């Protein structure tokens, strides 16, 4: 009998759990699609009139939407955990088929209304302002055209009076979507979602090609990114600009093998989309630190993109970014100290103090994570950069005062290029916990769902984040050896000393 699709080893799925993993991933995608397809709700902002994005306008009950959204997170996390476990048990799926499935899922989700936040409405507004000759770094959405513009006026609180925090490259992409969508909010949002989905799929292709011939790494490259149900839910279905930023960053890391200058340009474009992807540029610099000429080429490539971009945008393009550096999200462990420090010192002093503490903690946690992830050969620049990127971005999403679940895209992409390690478990716990904290996501006060979710996000989630930080430090202290030294860190679902299982064979 022929083996089932995606399983070249025939009966291996039943013994390894690969089939169950894919079933849960598929269920997560279906639940995600259901939330969008039902139309405007506590998770989905009203996309306005028009044929796109596709939805039913079913006016679903808030608790139904919340249950579907939470179910998508839970089944997605379980499916991803089972997939990683199945790989360790010998499951060898066809990565090209997995990538095709991820691409189809991304395309379908991009045609539905974005869910989980109203950020895409801000993207559309900034693009509209830029496309009409305004300055999204100076003109807030609620003031554009006297507050009557059909696109800019759709921005939801608390961002209606907020100018753009995103880089000039993001603004160019948003202006392109606005030019394609015209005065239609739904059409503009759909173009934004399609461009973002294309970037995510493109990054998936780059990751798969970069993984080369190793079957396990090729499978990981797809399962942790293009077919990662949490990435599909948070980044693709949410239509977040993080998809474009991380895709450019991934392309930059992959280009290190051939051209540091090109790598620098791509990483500069990533940073010009979202500033946090500068961490990936630092990772690339770490990988070429022993070659001063290549380091200079890398820096020159970044400067060739960033300097003209910000020269055109103007220095005030950084104003909102500086303001955002003072924010503390409700789900962050820093929220546990925010009120006390604000009361004792005043926010003018406490917020910079929190920022300094966060950077110090990020450095400490990055060193701790380094003990969990074996170092690749020094000659492999892409692997070295991917490892450094995963360590830096992992520490950042765990320690940043303002950290949202879709920010984790910057962790999952470099992690997809690395062999299995305890960082897989840390990433899965972090993203799952953060995603559940932002179900259903929109800020719609006045209903029971909003009040219950807000209590969970602000009271329970910060303690869970602190517990995860303590778990990282505990795992790091348990592992013998020095940071960066090759070794065998404990893997989730595998006992110390257990011998690896051979690949599953056909019966």
TrEMBL record:
UniProt protein name = DUF2029 domain-containing protein
What membrane topology term does the record carry?
Answer: Multi-pass membrane protein
Q: Which UniProt keywords apply?
A: Glycosyltransferase, Membrane, Transferase, Transmembrane, Transmembrane helix
Task: Report the InterPro entries cross-referenced here.
Answer: MptA/B-like
Q: According to the UniProt record, where is the region Disordered?
A: 482-507
Organism annotation: Vallicoccus soli
Localisation: Membrane
Q: Mind telling me which residue stretches traverse the membrane in this protein?
A: 21-43, 63-86, 98-116, 189-210, 222-241, 261-288, 295-313, 353-373, 385-404, 454-477
Pfam families under this entry? MptA_B_family (PF26314)
| GO cellular component entries | membrane
**What terms describe the molecular function in GO for this protein?**
glycosyltransferase activity
* Family to which the UniProt record says this protein belongs: Belongs to the MptA/B family.
């Amino acid at each position: 009998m022929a083996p089932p699709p995606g399983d070249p080893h025939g009966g291996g799925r039943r013994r390894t759990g690969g089939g169950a993993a894919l079933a849960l991933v598929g269920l997560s995608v279906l639940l995600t699609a259901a939330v969008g397809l039902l139309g405007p709700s506590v998770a989905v902002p009203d996309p306005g009139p028009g044929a796109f994005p596709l939805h039913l306008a079913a006016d679903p009950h808030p608790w139904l939407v919340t249950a579907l959204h939470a179910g998508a997170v839970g089944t997605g996390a379980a499916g991803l955990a089972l997939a990683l476990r199945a790989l360790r048990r010998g499951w060898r799926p066809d990565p090209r088929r997995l990538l095709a499935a991820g691409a189809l899922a991304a395309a379908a989700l991009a045609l539905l209304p974005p869910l989980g936040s109203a950020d895409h409405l801000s993207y559309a507004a900034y693009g509209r302002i830029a496309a009409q000759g305004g300055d999204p770094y100076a003109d807030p959405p609620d003031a554009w055209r006297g507050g009557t513009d059909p696109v800019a006026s759709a921005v939801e609180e608390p961002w209606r009076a907020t100018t753009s925090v995103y880089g000039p490259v993001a603004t160019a992409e948003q202006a392109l979507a606005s030019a394609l969508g015209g005065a239609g909010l739904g059409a503009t949002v759909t173009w934004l979602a399609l461009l973002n989905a294309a970037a995510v799929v493109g990054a998936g292709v780059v990751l798969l090609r970069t993984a080369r011939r190793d079957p396990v790494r090729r499978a990981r490259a797809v399962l942790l990114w293009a077919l990662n149900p949490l990435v599909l839910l948070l980044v693709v279905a949410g239509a977040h600009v993080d998809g474009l930023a991380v895709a450019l960053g991934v392309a930059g890391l992959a280009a290190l093998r051939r051209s540091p200058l090109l790598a620098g340009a791509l990483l500069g474009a990533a940073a010009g989309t979202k500033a946090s992807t500068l961490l990936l540029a630092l990772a690339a610099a770490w990988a070429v630190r022993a070659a001063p000429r290549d380091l200079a080429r890398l820096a020159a490539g970044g400067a060739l993109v960033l300097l003209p971009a910000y020269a055109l945008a103007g220095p005030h393009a950084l104003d909102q970014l500086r303001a955002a550096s003072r924010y503390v999200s409700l789900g962050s462990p820093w929220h546990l100290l925010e009120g006390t420090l604000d009361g004792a010192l005043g926010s003018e002093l406490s917020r910079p103090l929190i920022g300094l503490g966060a950077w110090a903690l990020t450095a400490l946690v990055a060193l701790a994570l380094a003990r969990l992830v074996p170092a690749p050969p020094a000659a492999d620049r892409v692997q070295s950069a991917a490892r450094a990127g995963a360590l830096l971005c992992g520490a950042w999403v765990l320690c940043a005062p303002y950290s949202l679940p879709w920010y984790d895209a910057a962790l999952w992409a470099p992690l997809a290029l690395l062999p299995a390690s305890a960082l897989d478990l840390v990433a899965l716990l972090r993203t799952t916990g953060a995603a559940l904290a932002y179900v259903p996501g929109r800020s719609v006060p006045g209903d029971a769902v909003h009040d219950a979710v807000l209590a969970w996000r602000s009271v329970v989630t910060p303690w869970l984040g602190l517990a995860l930080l303590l778990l990282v430090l505990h795992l790091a202290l348990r592992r013998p050896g020095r940071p960066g030294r090759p070794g065998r860190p404990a893997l989730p679902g595998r006992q110390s000393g257990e011998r690896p299982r051979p690949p599953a064979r056909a019966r």
